[in-house]
Amino acid sequence: MERKVRVRFAPSPTGPLHMGGVRTALYNYLFAKKHGGDMLLRIEDTDQTRYVLGAENYIIESLAWCGITFDEGVHVGGPHAPYRQSERKEMYKQYALQLIESGHAYYAFDSMEELDAMRENLKAANVASPQYNYITREGMKNSLTLPSDEVARRLAAGDAYVIRMKIPRKEEVRVVDLIRGNVLVQTSQMDDKVLFKSDGMPTYHLANVVDDYLMKITHVIRGEEWLPSAPLHVLLYRYLGWEEVMPEFAHLPLLLKPDGNGKLSKRDGDRLGFPVFPLQWQDPFTEEISSGYRENGYIPAAFINMLALLGWNPGTPQEIFSMSELIEAFSIERISKSGAKFDSAKTKWFNQQYLRQTSSEDLAKIFATEIQAKGFDYPITYIQAVCELVKEKAQFSNEFWSLASYFFEEPNSFDMDLVRKKWKDAVPAFMANLAADLNSIDQFDALSIEDLFKVCAEKNGISAGAVMQIFRIAISGQAAGPAIFELTSLIGKERIVKRLNFAINQFNTIA
RNA sequence: GGCCCGUUCGUCUAGGGGUUAGGACAGGAGAUUUUCAUUCUUCAAACAGGGGUUCGAUUCCCCUACGGGCUACCA
User: Fold this and answer.
1) Among candidate residues A83, A82, A62, the one with its CA nearest the CA of residue A10
2) Residue A341 CA to B7 C1' — how many Å?
3) Which of A75, A217, A384, A428 is deepest in the core (most CB within 10 A)?
4) What pLDDT was estimated at residue A108?
5) Is nucleic acid strand B under 7 Å from A51's C-beta?
């Protein structure tokens, strides 16, 4: 029987979710939706020592901003609730005990010091990989080496213990990975991983397998850092008697630093000048702030589009994808095997593409709140017209103010070096004439202004081109901007004439 | 160190036993826009190395190098 596709995104609330995590969530989401399946959000908070307050909310909020939705999870509930592992604590122990029962796990009573000493000894003896395994467990304090009455006594006395997996000595474990094919590992290379900790919590390995089984997960799509422990998980399914319904695995290549080596990390963002997190995050302990894509003016769909193409491609030249197009085109087979260096320049390009696609009407709505926040009151139609003019010049919506502030407030500072260069000969006279001429016309549309401008220049024996830039500076304060006569028309006759006269005064004082 | 995974332009990638090895970003040059941005044209840029297999390998196999991950009572 074909099972309904069910995938999960299962982060640990140890800090903000970085873009690599978002991509993992995205691929899970795309896969689920492509196959009409379910997407769950499970919080893996089995390590209380690393729990960070606010991280869970951050994760939920980030994914919502990205447009990744869930069918079940901590925030939306569902038939397999609770979805927070700390709240499922009581469920795990029975499975660990079941494994002891069947001879696939055992109690271990070793202290941290004893474990350290064991590893030190092995290192000193030049053992290639010092680990708690089929050889070393013979020399440690566990239910395999201790007499059964002592084990019973220790357990009854409440001695601290962990439950370890008993990895067979000489077997080959095969992991079938949807991206990499067969991965073979010898059990002799594996160690007796702790499944159940002395604090009563399961480790990732146990909790993960138990929950995926209980929640009927069909596909585990996760980062490549989990590939080395996948054989352990396969063994766990086998020994728990769940191999028939074991999920299929897909281990995603990692996101790498744009420069140098290694996987993309928290530090890289602010070091290299781009966000690594979807949303801004303030560390609750250090109060250190890490920037976010949202706060940097990125459109979530652009961010998602970029992420989707980092490690996956549709096999066609298409690069711009809406979420539904991504769902349509997505397939695990087309995920690449090697890690991808993150490219912030391309991310900006994606945002620019999306910004262009956004209507001036929608941009105006966003921009209007910024305008209002600054205390200005302009009709939305005016703001929309400004957006129309400025849109092509921006890469981010948060650049609008610096690009367009002069549409809303009068310029009061000018690039005087430039003015000095241009403010000579017939120019001052021309500007004075222009101000008067502009003031005298009724038709203040771009074409009429342009005609008037040219005629005025000719009257003063100057080429129109020669005075275009000083005119722009006079009315906008900036040396570059949108089509000059349209801009003039939009700002309106009264304000333009006023600005011109103000600028002429200013320019005269420095000339 | 050990184990596992990987390696096509600077970056993301397509391709696949015989190709002028394609696209995009970034970069260079030019044109348009009497500004900037846009747009257009154009240039430069890659199969890690060595062995096989083969009539022929960038493509398949092996080795080396390099890169990455893992190696906790963290996930």
Assistant:
1) A83
2) 13
3) A217
4) 98
5) no
A50 touches strand B (CB under 7 A): yes
ipTM for the complex shown: 0.95
What single-letter amino acid sits at A125? A
Residues in chain A: 511
User: What DSSP designation does A358 have?
Assistant: S
User: Does strand B come within 7 Å of the CB of A477?
Assistant: no
**How many helices, marked H, and strands, marked E, lie in chain A?**
20, 14
Joined tokens for residue A314: 């549709």
The first and second tokens of residue A257, run together, are 């630093």
pLDDT of A511 reads 58
Closest residue (CA to C1') to nucleotide B14 in the complex: A315
Q: Which long-range contacts (CB under 8 A, 24 or more apart) does A446-454 make?
A: A446/A483, A446/A485, A446/A486, A446/A488, A446/A489, A447/A485, A449/A485, A449/A488, A449/A489, A450/A485, A453/A485
Strand pairing class (A255-256; A340-341): parallel
Whether A275 contacts A291, CB under 8 Å: yes
Residue A337 designated active-site: no
| Residue stretches of chain A with pLDDT short of 70 | 1, 511
Q: Is the CB of A309 under 7 A from strand B?
A: yes
Q: Provide, in whole angstroms, the distance separating residue A19's CA from nucleotide B50's C1'.
A: 39
In sequence order, the 6+-apart residues with CB closer than 8 A to the CB of A221 are A7, A24, A27, A28, A31, A250, A252, A332
